[in-house]
Amino acid sequence: MVSPRTWRNLRRELRGSALAKIGIVLVLAIILVAVFAPFLAPYDPYQQDLGNSQVPPLGFSTTENETRSEMVNGSIEVVEEEVTVNATLAHPLGTDALGRDMLSRTIYGARTSLLVGVFGTMLAVLIGVTVGLTAGYYGGRVDDGLMRMSDIMLAFPSLVLAIALIGLFGGVTIRIPDPFVVLGLAPEMPPNIVLPGTVVLVVALVNWVWFARVARGEALSLRNEEYVKAARALGASDGSIVARHILPNSITPILVLATIQVAAIILLESSLSYLGFSGANLSWGLDIAQGRDYLASAWWIASIPGVAIVFAVIGVNLVGDWLRDALDPGIEGEGGV
Amino acid sequence: MTDDRQSRVSRRRYLQLAGGAAATAALAGCSNDSGELNTETPAEGANDSAGGGGGGNDTDSSDDQNNQESGEFAVTITQGQMDSGLDPHDHRETTTDIIVMQMYEGALDRDREGQVIEGLAENYEQAEPNRVRLTIREGVTFHNGDELTPQDVAFSINRIVNPDVGNLASPQSDQLAGITEAQVVDGERAVDVISDGVNPMAIGLLASYGDVMQQSWVESNDNSYINSNANGTGPFQLSNYVQDERVEYTKYEEYWREPAAVDALTITSASESSTRVNQLVSGETDIIVNVPPQEVSRINSNESTRVEAVPSTRIIYNGMRYDVEPFSNLQFRRAMNYAVDINTIVSEVLSDFADATGQPTLEGFTGYNPNIDPYPYDVEQAEQLVEESGFAGATIELHTPVGRYLKDLEIAQAVVGYINELSNVEASVNQRDFGALAGELTTGNIEDMPHWYLIGWGNETFDASQTLIPLLTTDGALSSWSNDQFDQLVSQAGQTANADERESLFQEANQLAHDQAPWIFLNRQYSVYGASSRIEWQARRDESIKAYEIMQP
Amino acid sequence: MSFARFIIKRSLQGIFVVWGVVTVVFLLRFSTPGDPITFIAPLDASPELRQRIAEELGLNQPLYVQYFDYLTGLLTGDMGYSYISGTEAATRIFARVPATVELAVAATVVAIVISIPLGVISATRRHEPADYAATTFSLAGISTPNFWLGIMLVLVFAVQLNFLPTSRRPVGIVQAVEVLVLSGNYAGIVLWLQHITLPAITLGTYFTALVTRLTRSGMLDELGKSYVDAARAKGLPETLVRYKHALRNTLIPVITVLGLQLGTLIGGAVITEAVFAWPGLGTLVINSINTRDWPLIQGCLIVIGSSFVFVNIAVDALYAYVNPQVVYD
Question: Membrane spanning segments where (chain C) (predicted)?
């Protein structure tokens, strides 16, 4: 499926491009962090320590006024004290409003983003390629019908449609046991990976159209090729023709598109989490939403997870650029949110 | 505090909030150089306000409010949300209520401390156990100039309690619980309010609810019009209504009391608390609601703003449905109460802008049981009770609104965090939209409710009944619990005319609720407001904001 | 096929898609769990009352009757009555449209004003620092979630510097201009500018980055083509070559991509509005989904969907007009 020429192109493009190298490094780093989160995170990301909340990241020790309320003679008094909050090596990226370790939450957040990005894209590819190949291969009425359907889908901005679907159907989460914890290698860590199931489904439902369009285009151009006609004359079934002759030739553009879509879906997931529509308990977008209320007193709660998102998406986009430049499939997809 | 925090208490500032206007007087003292008296506000620290200049009006000098040169006293109030329409009988939220209450009034009213006072009725008496007689004031006019009649008062009460009156099935009917009808008394300027039995609460309910509208105005307009216009008797009349954005009022000069000190009033909203604080600090607004503790110092360190806090009538609790596992089990429910360290939540999450509770009724209310303490924090006890309950290994999910109550999400997360510290229960948080969650809680069918939820309940009547009946009796509008003994105690209390006996029955019911633990008892919320020093105003316990009470210093 | 026939054909297709949008939105309501009456009726409504409301709303009618009623209602501009907010859905939705249009237009203006010069500079000074800066900016721009960008802008410009307001829209541009024209008072315009700056930058950044990228690569392509060399050989000034010929040809595909990205713009507007409490369609759609205010949800989705369709037709028409070689298929 991947020819030696393709490999050559990929290697040549990689040698010439520093950006492609950076992209690969970033993507590999994110994958490693996500996979080995239980070993890398210093704390259980859910573990709270109310007495140790809003500790700043290293290098940002602050002096601030802390206020408490006290009842004196039946009326409330606000007591203000000046407190020095020292950054500590124990929490290099600080803690959030409940004293949870920001570093651990950021590390674990990579899992949610990546799982949704990868599974969501896979599902979208599955739906989109099936629809697209069917439409392109059969042409005629089937094609018209399926493509008008995709026009209708495209009329809804993906974020709006996703919000509507999740808001109306509710967010279902799937708990996957964390293999490292099950094996007893990281007993202190949360035993389950919480996958926002509805989000995966919904991001696939709002993104399949792009894959359908690409797959259709490929099928349309290939179905009248001589070797396809020959196979048909020899009595091969439609299914096997598509699987053996058309699908393999569509792989390249779909792979490139899928890479770009992973970035778009990571952004979409974080937006949904930010708006409180994901059902996940641990996500970069969710932490940003929570940090919003603390901008004046603890800027890092909202800032750090955003930096993580930017790095992840830049990484994926750079890899996408590299693949596109090397393979040149000539496609355009919807970008971010 | 903790190792990371080197508590260098250099100054302590006591703000006499009950004094309101005296908020700038500050007393400073500290642990290492005590005795120093200082009248300044601390200037150091994160002074992210407008960099001096008295709150820096540079951002919004020409905002929709006033300019003081014209001599007009204009005030802006910023809430968390706007109204859901202006019909005073067609809503159930405090936010809408505050917008509406500037224009509409009830027959009776309450003062700042919650005592019943006269309103549109100049006199009221419990004529019979099931009948309250209201004598209606003369010389009161609606904003359209028409005179208030007893018919209008009776019509308004009937519009709430009777779905066939006034083209509205009012969601407030249970706020006037027990009241079935209001009748004009022949030949007198009076209205009889009839209940379906002994109703010792009727006067209290009429003092908190039951806004009076003009019958002819309601009957000659459709709902859509009534929701975007107003015609009340209150101190302010509507001048401009921009749905979801702002409501503007002007002083009603013909008000039956003294006309208000405020000439022009605007109510607007910002859902983010930090946004509200920014608006206050930059002089865009004069009163903001729900200031979270982490923003208090920002307001206090600004010279032209102050914090107003008061214990509210709202209790925050975690309801547990008695009909589903594992919450059907008494030991499990008690275990949840032992697992949560409510005192630490109150001090660390809420910075003591709250009180821990151990019973459904708040301190100071009729029926409060002074002998009940909050559940102590005891992890071992909790784990053991979970084992005994047979539900070890249970996985539970807490549904919570976000941004509705002071630190609601943080409280829910802290509760879940504590429960996760138990070795044998796994808990998680489900963030919900308030409207959707409230919808599920109020369908009247327990099957629609989440198994475990955080919600807050405000009871402006200062009486146990309006908490215990709706939240805990089997047929209560928001109840997820059923206990025969409890129902009996509450219904006995409702039928007794003897005040002492009634109080002790409610106390007994509170003890039972504590022991049976239908809730995880959390906290009494404080109302924390930010106010500009351009205005003289004190926070009310019942969460309402009456612009009529705002004065010019 | 003539230009006119092309437009007519595209419009007919557009109407078909809008009809599909309406149908999908209508069916959405019947595929969601939960009885809508629950969200409409008062808290303690008796079964009889629920029944009465259901009848009033026609919820007891067969599906096709309800569908037909809904379609005919839409044709007369009636999107149903929102019981939850006590208003006509259409009134409420159209009251929100100006705010969203204002934001989207401001963001597009920001994007075009910044990105096209940036793209041109980047392409003509390849491998110079300016090019690297522009490339880095555009990469970061397409990779940053705009809600986070908005929050960071609020953190810096509103919370720290207290230079711009954090949110809200106290005045619309139409009102502000009205005041300026009638009374010569420019305070309204200043106020409007102060409030729209951060939201417009937030929403516009992605497009600025995207158009910068497109302009850069388009310009590089065009500048390498033979007609450019020919023009230079003829002694035409370099600026004329660059800006008249090369840029013009670059902009044609840029327009198409912008049309395709309109969905992203609207999606971005939704979340930008949420960050800045901007009273547009986005915040309305989120609120109405949360409260399950069906007439509003349906109305918003239809308005958003059909505006997408018709703006795309307009973009196609513009494209066909700008580029006479287009094949009308």
Answer: 12-30, 103-124, 136-159, 189-211, 251-276, 296-322
Chain C nearest CA to A281, separation (Å): 18
A297 and A178 housed in the same domain? yes
Instruction: Write down the pLDDT at residue B339.
Output: 95
Subunits that touch chain A (at least 3 Cβ pairs < 8 angstroms)?
B, C
| A74 & A206 share domain | no
Which bin fits A282, alpha (ψ -120 to 50), beta or left (φ > 0)? Answer: beta
The verdict on a CB contact (< 8 Å) between A84 and B44 is no
Chains with 3 or more CB pairs closer than 8 angstroms to C? A, B
State which residues form the domain around A78: 62-90
Closest approach of A261 to chain B, Cα-based (Å): 27
In order of A2, A124, A145, A218, A243, the CA distances from A239 in angstroms are 22, 20, 20, 16, 6
Domain count, chain A: 2
State the pTM of this model.
Answer: 0.81
- Domain match, A193 and A79 both: no
* A234 in contact with C, Cβ within 8 Å: no
3-class secondary-structure state, position B290: coil
Is the Cα torsion angle C150, C155, C161, C165 positive or negative in sign? positive
Average pLDDT, chain B: 82
Q: CA B45 to CA C192: how far, in whole Å?
A: 32
Q: Which of residues 205-224 of A touch C (CB under 8 A)?
A: none
Amino acid found at A297: S
ipTM: 0.88
A303 touches chain C (CB under 8 A): yes
Query: Under an 8 A CB cutoff, do A334 and C264 touch?
Result: yes
B77 versus C44: the higher-pLDDT residue is: B77
Q: Is the Cβ of A64 closer than 8 Å to some Cβ of chain C?
A: no
Above 90 in pLDDT, residue B30? no
Q: Enumerate domains of chain C plus CATH numbers.
A: 2-90 (no CATH), 95-322 (1.10.3720.10)
pLDDT for the residue numbered B44: 29
Shortest Cα distance, chain A CAs vs residue B503, angstroms? 23
pLDDT tens-digit profile of A155-206? Answer: 888 888 888 888 877 778 888 888 888 888 888 888 888 888 889 999 998 8
- Identify the pLDDT of residue B329: 93
Q: Is the model's pLDDT at B247 over the cut of 90?
A: yes
